[in-house]
Amino acid sequence: MKERRVPMTSGFITLTDQTKLYYERYGAGKPLIFLHGNNSSGRYFKKQVPFFANYFDCLILDTRGHGRSNNEATELNFRLLAGDLAEVMEILKLSKATILGFSDGANLALAFSHIFPEKVEGLILNSGNYRVNGEKWLTRVATQLGYFSLAFLGVFSTTFIRQKNMLSLMVNDLPLSEIDLEQITAKTLVIAGTCDVIKPVTPKK
């Protein structure tokens, strides 16, 4: 049987509004926070964490309204999620961390870095897009159709409301301008795949 890494610590962190966020923490060293993508959870990083835990204090979160975390608010947006992350860091006594985000996790890392720059040591941004039109058109159309369908079905079941709230993160631009992005001073690694749903871009210095 394949050996399974047991979390150093795990459980739920209760936020000010009584939302409970599930987290796991592995390893020791400088803090490295993992942020998953839309409609996903911290389990997304299960193959990466065993390696990074040899070098870092790894914190894996299920963000609000995702995975094992609930959502006591009526909506989801990146400002709210950024505030959650700041509160988690305060509770766990992490003054500063490197943040690794995939997809919406990368978008959250950008928003967090803009709002709480003093808490960011560095950024690893994989497959992020701060504008909706940064997605390829087929993905964008499918997301919009899914969002409006779930908004209708939400009249009949709270399960659909949870799904709609998650998709709302993909149908709205991040509350950031190009000037805001230029003001981010943390060391940053940007990763994009050749088969990504994000449009290819020419990097700017």
Automatic annotation (TrEMBL):
It holds the Pfam family Abhydrolase_1. Residues 30-158 form the AB hydrolase-1 domain. Signal peptide: none annotated. It comes from the Bacteria. This is AB hydrolase-1 domain-containing protein. It comes from Enterococcus canintestini. The lineage of its organism: Bacteria, Bacillati, Bacillota, Bacilli, Lactobacillales.
